[in-house]
Amino acid sequence: MEHIKTKDFDFYVDESGFTFNREYLTGPVKHKKSIEMNPLLLKHLSEEDQSWNYAFVSGIYHNEEEKEEYEKRDFANGITVINRGTMNGECRKNSGHYHGVSKGHVLPYPEVYEILQGKAAFILQKSTNFDSEEELKVDDVKLVILETGEKLVVPAWYAHCAINIGDEPMAFYNLAAKNTPLFYDPITKKHGFSYYILKENDILIAIQNANYNNLPQLKVVKPSYDEKLGIIEGKSVFAQFAEDPDIFRYLDHPEEYEAEIENLLK
Ligand SMILES: [Fe+2]
Fold first, then answer.
1. What is the pLDDT of residue 123?
2. CB 238 within 8 A of CB 132
3. SS3 of 221, please?
4. 62 CA distance to ligand 1 centroid (A)?
């Protein structure tokens, strides 16, 4: 059993999934089984596989006042834990999706992630035609490597998939504006993201997904910090929101912060 304790959250992870170690205001913890990932895997798992792949909870607060602050702004937070181990050699991951453009906007909403425990990689793949009947065109693919405490802001048009590249369960926190239209189908149609990440003898291997045409080279990047976006070294996004929620205004005003958000991954 793993005890995952940060300044903000306290929970356990074991063979059956994750449970909280104290009372929070939260929705139910939901689990996704490994075999449910089969449509998105390089090699399918046998139907006998009983393991859980990831668990998530939407909306997590210490008290009513905190909850009201998020609700007032129409923001949603959550925690996801991706199990340890691999699936036929492929690193465990979540499903991943594109964000559509919300009403009254020209850019999709961004999303903030912070690693609470473990080592993570996020595949970010940029497409602007995911909401059309055309062949999905991928203009850029980044593999963002993150250690515990590091943060990522997903820029406009990038589908995002979280991957556990470490040897222990990987937990992350997310913060985004609510009511973002989510597009899973463009990914499912291609049997996953543009690259599969495998682990052999502790070495990560990226394999192109043959269902995509004309894929750009995968770029490995480390994100930087930007105090003006509330992405601060040594300070959790949860604590930063409690102290100054206005700093996350970019989550539902992406057009005004496009360059700053993109700069974090340059
Ligand atoms: Fe998202």
1. 98
2. no
3. strand
4. 23
Count: domains in the chain: 1
Classify residue 201 as exposed, middle or buried by CB count within 10 Å of its CB (0-12, 13-18, 19+). exposed
CATH number of the domain bearing residue 9: 2.60.120.10
- Distance of CA 97 from the midpoint of ligand 1 (Å): 6
Q: What is the pLDDT of residue 127?
A: 98
Cα 222 to ligand 1 centre (Å): 19
| Gap from CA of 37 to ligand 1 centroid (Å) | 17
The rounded Å distance from CA 201 to ligand 1 centre is: 31
What's the helix, strand, coil split of the chain in %, to 5?
20, 40, 45
Determine the structural domain holding residue 43 and report its residue range: 2-263
Return d(Cα 174, Cα 75) in angstroms, integer. Answer: 10
Residue at 211: amino acid letter? N
CB atoms within 10 A of CB 12: 16
**Tokens representing residue 8 in the block:** 């903000």
Q: pLDDT for 4-62, tens place per residue?
A: 999 999 999 998 888 998 999 998 899 999 999 999 999 999 999 999 999 999 999 99
**180 alpha carbon – ligand 1 mean position (Å):** 8
Beta strands in 45-135 (DSSP E): 52-58, 60-61, 75-82, 86-87, 90-91, 98-99, 111-117, 120-126
Mind listing the pLDDT tens digit for each residue in 168-223?
A: 999 999 999 998 999 999 999 999 999 999 999 999 999 999 999 999 999 999 99
